[in-house]
Amino acid sequence: MSEKKHVLMLLSNPFRPDPRVHREAKSLVNAGYEVTILCWDREQRYPTEETIDGIRIKRMGPRCGYGKASDMIRSLPRFWKNLRKEATNMNFDIIHAHDLDTLSPALRISSKRKVPVIYDSHEIYHEMAGENLSGVFLKLLASYERRMVRKPRMMITVNEPIADIFKGFGASDVRVIMNCQPEPQVDAGKVEAIRKTLTPDGKRIVLYIGVLEPNRLLLELAEAHSKSKGDFILAIGGFGSLESGIAEIAKSGNGRVKFIGKVEPASVPTYNAASTVLLAAYDPGLKNNRMGAPNKLFESMASSKPIIVSKGTYAARIVEESGCGLAVGYNADSVLSAALKLLNDSALHAKCSVAGRRAYGEKYNWAVMEKRLLGIYSELLNHSD
User: Fold this and answer.
1) How confident is the model at residue 101 (pLDDT cuts 50, 70, 90)?
2) Which end of the chain offers a freer environment for a tag, N or C, measured as fewer CB atoms within 10 Å?
3) What is the pTM of this model?
4) Domains of the chain
């Protein structure tokens, strides 16, 4: 790249960092772009400015609590105003808007500055919001999303089924950048230290690290395993509304359930390496869960660990096609039985591990996705010159 191009990313979370956003931004920096992320720190608890892996982060308000959709609806216009104000004094060549709640200001900024917009939809937004909204508000949001996705010149999303939905909404050009993982870099000493911490007596570990919210069987699995006779540790890490409930089960149980708490993204591959089986059993009754492919799926492939997912999902289709794990019914008994099956059948465990790593090497790795991303940027910027 003869002259550095500047990328302005817009994000409605505080970039803790957000794994997908981090991967994309880091790839762009490594390719010679300058990247600035303007993001929303709703709790006002992170540095106002910092640099992570060459990515400039600028966080802003307003303060806004979590848990109430009404609070976000009231505060979102102020966040948009802050984004537009901050962008006024910046130089950039392209805007990369993450999710629907940053698309409107991105389009407005783009119109004034005459730069292209990439709209990066991590999920079907109104389906995600449907967990907290209903009735007329949800219908209005769905209608808004259908209108808005038609406006950007280019859109990217996480897989083909969701891309097809957005095309059905009228989006003109939708590309797929999956949430695949870079090659994991782990330290053997740290892996062993995690194993000893979680299970000093050397039991095998079944692991979930991610968002701790309903519709993932987390409380159900913790409760059921705390009373079971399964000879393994169920380790759960992350943050969300279920933290206290999971921690309480782990504290009052018989040692079979371990609550890890928040895990920094950079440490997740080490935890994966310390585990024996990974979990990503999401409720297929929710459309985003049926259509999505969780990060944990690709982490399992990269780390050569079998994974358990829910039947009736796109993730199950990938698991069954690649052979990297088991797809089971969405209930605690089925998931725990599948975990025992993988733990007790060494041949099956090895078969799934090898198949997952093969799928990672051939198709589901970040190097493949990075090439797509850089191609999209080159196409848009060359077209705009």
Assistant:
1) very high
2) C
3) 0.92
4) 6-180+365-384 (3.40.50.2000), 188-362 (3.40.50.2000)
